[in-house]
Amino acid sequence: MVSSTHWLASATGMAVLEDGGNAFDAAVAAGLVLQVVEPHLNGPGGEVPITVYDRTSDEVAVIAGQGPAPQAATIAAFQDRGLDLIPGTGLLAACVPGAMGAWLALLERYGTKSVSDVFRYAIDYADNGYPLVDRIAATVAAMEQTFRQEWPTSAEVYLADGLPRGGELFSNRLLAATFRRLVKAAGGGSREAQIEATRREFYEGFVAEAIDHFCHEEALLTGEDLAGWIAGFEQTVSLDFHDYRVHKCGPWTQGPVFLQQLALLSGFDLASMSDAERIHVVVESAKLAFADREAFYGDPDFAEIPLEDLLSDDYSAERRALIGTAASFELRPGRPGGRVAQLPPATGTGDRTPEHLAGAGEPTRGDTCHVDVVDRWGNMVAATPSGGWLQSSPVVPGLGFCLGTRMQMFWLTEGLPNSLEPGKRPRTTLTPSLAFKDGEPYMAFGTPGGDTQDQWSLNMFLNHAVLGMDLQQAIDAPNFHTNHFPSSFYPRLAAPGQIEVEDRVGDDVIASLRRRGHEVEMAEPWSLGRLCAVARQPDGILKAAANPRGMQGYAVGR
Known about the structure:
This protein is an alpha+beta fold. It has helices at about 5-20, 25-35, 75-80, 100-110, 115-130, 135-140, 145-150, 150-160, 175-185, 190-205, 205-215, 225, 255-265, 275-295, 305-310, 315-320, 455-465, 470-475, 505-515, and strands at about 1-5, 50-55, 60-65, 130, 170, 230-235, 235-240, 245-250, 370-375, 380-385, 435, 440-445, 480, 500, 520-525, 530-535, 540-545, 555. Helices cover about 35% and strands about 15% of the residues.
């Protein structure tokens, strides 16, 4: 089974499985296709955290595909430029591209296919064309003047034949050529040697040289930064909830906030609540968990992150007691292990619904993709690629792709867990999930959505694990989230008390939430979340579901 945010990626993953590949081969091929067909959502210059379950070794692991800040990226370097926040657009916010290294690491450790096997689908779509979804065409149209006046390398790729239209076939032959050169660099040695040669060509060869040259005057990123980085393998962070054990990436992502919410919600009988009461409790739990994210999360290689205390029963019970019958309007981190919270500076408040963000710095912000795979042997992958958005950074000359802007998630205040430091990973929003059930690997799932990822995916998980919905019903159910805490993206706005709810929850539910004090913003009926999920039952039956919102998500299996 394969489920992803784009039908061509899902079809690619299934083609690899039918060709004898395993889940890891399929995920890599699908991930490379996503770089081609969703360039407004991810690219080779972006990043991807990956969670895996390998049946052969019975191993659960994380591949940390988040590149670090450049060695020249200091707080002083930005303050000297008159900045108190890292911008969300342009070369200055670029970290080391992590996506390619992570996909190659996944292929090397767990895969069976060659470099050319997994690249051929992406090369074909980049060279011969793929149908543009309407959102890409709209994004290019919104950026037309910027491309023509400021980013000519982007105009070269996206405006070569005028403004593209939704549904048209679109090619990115520069990207196809880049991928071909990477495959050629792999050579004809062993599979491991091929993968290492490809990695070197990207991080030390022509790709790194092109990035170094392009960034020389405007950015802090250098070829040396690329050459000094390799994607690492880490243990997951996990928590038991009912019959499940949920595995997430570490606190260099927001992943543990999902587990903190579960720990808080374990003290409530969610199944017996009305819809309004359940939404209220889930939202109030999110406010507490995300306040702790703001105060305590960051790269554990640079800061002490009190995960054990944050996930402990005693701490969760103490925090749970703060959830009352009325909506909270405060950002209330706790004191895990007696620690004093270190909150970032206030950066302003305002409505964070999309229609209110024009001119606030976020219209050039991209989003994210997701892909889940489970194979006949029970191997599982959940990956959330993002960054390198066509609308937030210019195309690197000769390569056909953009760099990421993930450094915007750092704070320029000294002494915080997520303060900028050279070589440090920004605390990203990207957060794939794996869940075991009754001790057996069961489900891989996730969604795009920035700060809402661990809200939308939590809602889906609760719908399935607590309310008994099947995977598709759990995804289709009306979704909601809160914008209460500071955004992870420039300009870091917060909207205290604000929740967004798909209006099909019903007027009675919305009225009840407003009586509890929530600032309710009604979203379109099918607008919140782009969830994907695959699962394997104990009897070996596989199942999958994909999001109908946006008409791109696709689940396929055989």
